[in-house]
Each structure stands twice: as structure tokens, then as C-alpha cells.
Automatic annotation (TrEMBL):
GO terms for biological process: axon guidance; dendrite self-avoidance; homophilic cell adhesion via plasma membrane adhesion molecules. Residues 181-220 form the Fibronectin type-III domain. Residues 61-172 form the Ig-like domain. The keyword Membrane does not apply. It comes from Strigamia maritima. This is Dscam. GO terms for molecular function: cell-cell adhesion mediator activity. Keywords: Immunoglobulin domain, Repeat.
Length: 220
């Protein structure tokens, strides 16, 4: 039975397997396996039941999502949500492109609040903010970017940790924008009838460049 006392018939899957001899095998026990287990045996004469409880007293962090791709346009707001179950206290560390994010200054709040003196823990640095909250047995850490920029096209890792272990979730961000102007435009060759113009391909804005427009001006 689950936390609300509802009885559900055990079926194979999610690490659970019902053996032919009536035994129940559970591999890689996690929070989803916690609860009371009732075994009922019956025949034409009658029935008998037995119950056992699985109580997890030492649970490492278990994240709701392990990987997520995100694509936004330059200037958009971005929100990453890292939801973890497990024993508390639990701490979160965010990594930007493999480097731990240092929450040591308060500036703008990407969540749009005028003040960060809210019940949620809030730490801001430049355009970034982290907030943490507890809700119905889980802990949530949110990472927000007020205005996504080119340098934000990278990976953001949320690492949840308690006394019994840790687990990571990766959020991949791609910021789309207009391409830069071509660089090093030059005449590579010329004849009486043709001119060859070359240039160095610019930053594409994380989107394929569809075409280049070449303009010229006649000199009288």
C-alpha cells in the first residue's frame, strides 16, 4: 500500500519481479518501493495473509529529471528546476560549464520579484539567481537566468547531496541569436570579367546561416 493507504497489485517492472514460487524480488530499492506489502495465499479451504513493511531510513538524493535540453532566444528568461527526494538535510551545487557557481553577491532577481527577502532562499550574482524550497517531502532548487546571452550556451549541472550520497542532473542550454557580420572581407582574385570575394564565416548565432548578401558600388 502507498502513503495514502491505497492497495495496488504488484506487477513486474520498476525493479520488481514476482517469482514463480510466490516470492517478491526487488532490485535497486528506491523511494518508489517504500510501503506495506501484503501477500495473500488462498485455496478452496481458505486463505492466509502476511504483511511486511519496507521503510527507507537512509535515502540518497533521487532527482526527478536527469537530463533536459533547452533552446531559447537571446534575451529570454530561463528557468531550470531540480527536484530531489531523499533524506534531509540536502544541499545543492550548480555548475556552469563544469565550474561551481559561486553565490556571493546579490543583484537582479530573474524571478521578477522586487525584493529577495522571501521565504525562499535566494542568492543572485549578475544575471543568475538560485532559490531553494521544500514541498511535500521533496526539495527543489531553481536556477534562473534573467536575460540569456551567448555565453549561456553551455551545460548547467545540478548536484544534490546528503549524508548518504549524491546525484546529478544536466540541463543543456542553446541560445539562438542573429549571426555576426562576416570578417576579413577581401578580394581573392580578379580578371577582366570576374572578381572573387572571400571572407571568414562569422559566428552563426547557433543557427545555420541561410545566405550572404554581397553589395557593391560602381565607381565612375
Amino acid at each position: 500500500s502507498d502513503a495514502k493507504g491505497r492497495k495496488n497489485k504488484v506487477q513486474d517492472g520498476n525493479g520488481v519481479r514476482l517469482l514463480t514460487n510466490g516470492s517478491l524480488e526487488i532490485k535497486n530499492v528506491n523511494l518508489n518501493h517504500a510501503g506495506y506489502y501484503f501477500c495473500l495465499s488462498e485455496n478452496a479451504i481458505g486463505s492466509i495473509s502476511e504483511s511486511h513493511m519496507i521503510y527507507l531510513s537512509a535515502v540518497p538524493p533521487q532527482l526527478h529529471k536527469k537530463f533536459q535540453n533547452n533552446t531559447v532566444q537571446k534575451g529570454d528568461s530561463v528557468h531550470f528546476k531540480c527536484v530531489a527526494h531523499g533524506d534531509q538535510p540536502m544541499t545543492f551545487t550548480w555548475y556552469i560549464n563544469g565550474v561551481a557557481f559561486n553565490e556571493n553577491s546579490n543583484t537582479n532577481d530573474p524571478f521578477g520579484q522586487e525584493s529577495i527577502s522571501s521565504p525562499l532562499k535566494s542568492n543572485c550574482i549578475n544575471r543568475y539567481v538560485i532559490k531553494q524550497s521544500n514541498d511535500d517531502g521533496s526539495v527543489t532548487s531553481e536556477f534562473a537566468i534573467k536575460k540569456a546571452d551567448r555565453k549561456d550556451s553551455t551545460s548547467f549541472i545540478c548536484s544534490a547531496e546528503n549524508s548518504y550520497g549524491s546525484e546529478n542532473a544536466t540541463f543543456s542550454l542553446m541560445v539562438l541569436e542573429k549571426p555576426d557580420a562576416p570578417e576579413d572581407v577581401r578580394i581573392a582574385g580578379a580578371t577582366n570579367r570576374t572578381v572573387v570575394v572571400e571572407w571568414t564565416a562569422p559566428f552563426s548565432g547557433n543557427n545555420p546561416i541561410n545566405k550572404y548578401i554581397l553589395q557593391y558600388k560602381l565607381i565612375a
